[in-house]
Amino acid sequence: MSSQFADFPSLRARRHVNQRRKRVSKALRIPMIAGGATLAALGIKRRSLLGAGMAAGGGLLIYRGITAQGAWLSTLISVRKSVTIARPVEELYRFWREFENLPRFMRHLRSVRSSGGQLQWVSSGLLGKNFSWEAEIVEERENELISWRSLPGSQIENQGAVRFQAAPEDRGTEVRVELVYRPPAGRVGAAFAMLFGEEPEQQIREDLRRFKELMEAGEIPTTDGQPHGRRSKVTNILKSVSGYGRSDEEMNAQRVIS
Amino acid sequence: MKALCWYGKEDVRVETVPDPKVLNPKDAIIEVTRTAICGSDLHLYDGFIPTLEAGDILGHEFMGEVVDTGQEVRKLNRGDKVVVPFTIACGQCFFCKRGLWSACDNTNPNAWMAEKMYGYSGSGLFGYSHMMGGYAGGQAQYVRVPFADVGPLQIPDGVPDDKVLFLSDIFPTGYMAAENCDIKPGDVIAIWGCGPVGQFAIRSALLLGAAKVIAIDRFPERLQLAERGGAETLDYSRCDDVVEELKFRTGGRGPDACIDAVGMEAHATSISGLYDEIETRLMLETDRPMVLRQAIQACRKGGTVSIPGVYAGFINKLNFGAAFGKGLTFKMGQTNMHKYMQPLLQKIMDGAIDPSEVISHRVGLRDAPRMYKVFREKQDHCTKVVLDPKAA
To answer: Per the CB < 8 Å rule, is B18 touching A229?
Structure first.
């Protein structure tokens, strides 16, 4: 199908920036991976709790080096993902159009408030620090498209669209999301990268998966809070560094009757 | 509660862990009255399945009594006796609606892991690694069951647990393997592996009208059980060439369908067995496909190879040319449990089959770690271990 950016000339013009970003980030990867490997090797040799921590940290560096998408560098990031949901277009459109619903399946969003075509987004951050930004609805076509973009002066400059299109036969609806955002610079930027920087594509995919689960099955599957035997120290450390965004429990508490 | 936890290769222990609680509105909590060790649990025990974590509770064959339900559970009530399928399904997605329950889109919280390995993720499974959902398993005194109105099958009063427990996995799994052979009058079915799934595949193939079933194994007690189930037996350890032997016994035609009820940890006495042993040790392949190769080679032209045995990763030297040259059909995958449980319960109630005949050992949960080893080594004529979590 034709480019999803057709409706956003400003975004289309910026795509080459995105390409350049990828080349730049490559140069950073080698030292990150090498440093991570050294740290991990030293950590493993120690065979102690500190060593496990070092190994975990090294692993994280390697991982970041491999998956670096440039959120460390303050340039434009664009993501597109689609999912098929076995529900009618009208139902999905209506649910999404109630922007207050979005935090029910978007892990990083704490709340969205809408009034008169303007949206206030609040996203959960590290150590209880929240990000917030204002956006306006750019275009709305009922049962077809909603697009928005951040207002000038926002902490997080971004633009996005969601499209709804009937899938073949009885397969429901194809939902396509596109997001373009420029991560903030400085300290805010570093905290932001910790949150969104790892794999923005993966996070949008997970948000869409949760949307599908919620709309089709009526709940989002979880194992958070189930019993298990003693975990190893390494597992615990890895879990503590890799967990970002809100827990399933927090998201569930947000369940509202729609 | 007490639960059997995995701590590493050949290291499982019964530990005291917190009781499970309702986490989602469609959950139920089951007090387990019977659970079993599955042949596929041995793949976990032997370290063949990635993404297990120390402390994970194993077990995917279990039944029990409903003791708590989430606010959106409608069908089940406290006190109901249920058998729980090992696959978790939402009942609402594209796949569930088409009867492909084990491919459910909405029950694996870690679907991204399976997507990285397989492209797409199947349904969540109980006690079978984080890639498959990371759900705590049923070799425990209590277990949490998501989508409780979709999976669990209510069992009428007065039916003994041991007769219906295997509706949780191995009976439907053996049955689907036979159904996948699309059996026509006169068909001969060859079945590799006379473990519990093989036993149910034998009985199901005959129920579905097979003219003859040839069951292949090397353990006398398993071959005897196969014979009792109506199969003709073939001891591969006393046979130079299984493919030639099958040809001879089928008038040169070859079996119309072949069932691989062994999977990725096959053993063989031949050179090719040694080859796979070496390759897996060297990490050049992850699974040992001896049975699959033999089944492909033996199957008649245009026949079906049906695979209930579990494969997880990569295999080498697969005779795919033979499969192509003969125009074979392959059918495989995790069992679409929800489709088979009710009709197979009916067969049990009608007396057409008594699944409890495969049980060789009944012990308390605390003996489970020892029984994993006994079952793996096939010591003491072990074919199937049933655990009673209350005997503790």
So the answer is: no
Give the right CATH number for A77-220 from 3.40.50.80, 3.30.530.20, 1.20.120.520, 3.30.413.10: 3.30.530.20
> Looking at residue B39, what is its pLDDT?
93
- The residue among B332, B347, B368 that closes a domain is B332
Instruction: List residues of chain B with CB under 8 Å from any CB of chain A.
Output: 1, 3, 5, 7, 13, 15, 17-21, 23-26, 53-57, 72, 88, 90-94, 97, 105-109, 111-112, 124, 133-136, 140, 144, 146-147
A212, A213, B275 from A245: Cα distances, Å: 19, 18, 47
| Dihedral sign of CA atoms B221, B222, B226, B231 in order | negative
Nearest CA among B136, B140, B47, B141 for reference residue B88: B136
Q: Is A226 on the interface with B (CB under 8 A)?
A: yes
Give the three-class secondary structure for A13: helix
B142-145 and A173-182 beta bridge pairing? unpaired
Residues B181 and B105 grouped into a single domain:
no
CB pairs under 8 A between A and B: 108
**Domain ranges in chain A?**
4-67, 77-220
**CB contact set of B245 (below 8 Å; sequence gap of 6+):** B234, B239
Do residue B251 and residue B325 come from a single domain? yes
Instruction: Kindly state whether residues B317 and B370 are assigned to the same domain.
Output: no
* One pLDDT digit (tens) per residue for chain B, 392 residues: 999 999 999 999 999 999 999 999 999 999 999 999 999 999 999 998 889 999 999 999 999 999 999 999 999 999 999 999 999 999 999 999 999 999 999 999 999 999 989 999 999 999 999 999 999 999 999 999 999 999 999 999 999 999 999 999 999 999 999 999 999 999 999 999 999 999 999 999 999 999 999 999 999 999 999 999 999 999 999 999 999 999 999 999 999 999 999 998 877 666 667 777 777 777 677 778 899 999 999 999 999 999 999 998 888 889 999 999 999 999 999 999 999 999 999 999 999 999 999 999 999 999 999 999 999 999 999 999 999 998 85
- Chain-chain contact of B20 with A226 (C-beta, under 8 angstroms): yes
The last residue of a domain, from among B289, B306, B332: B332
Q: What is the pLDDT of residues A130-145, one digit of tens each?
A: 778 899 999 999 999 9
Report the alpha-carbon distance of residue B387 to residue B359 in Å, rounded. 11
Q: Give residue-wise pLDDT tens across range B289-315.
A: 899 999 999 999 999 999 999 998 888
Tell me the chain B residues in contact with residue A252 when contact means C-beta distances shorter than 8 Å: 23-24
Give dist(CA B216, CA B198) in Å, integer: 9
Cα–Cα distance between A173 and B35 in angstroms, integer?
41
CA distance B201 to A208: 40
B215 and B280 share a domain?
yes
Q: pTM surpassing 0.90?
A: no
Structure tokens at A120: 């206030």
ipTM metric: 0.92
Chain B residues with beta carbon closer than 8 angstroms to that of A220? 24, 109
Q: Distance (Å, rounded) from C-alpha B261 to C-alpha B197?
A: 6
For residues B31 and B57, state if they share a domain.
Answer: yes
**Domain containing B320: what range?**
174-332
Domain with residue B32: its CATH number is 3.90.180.10
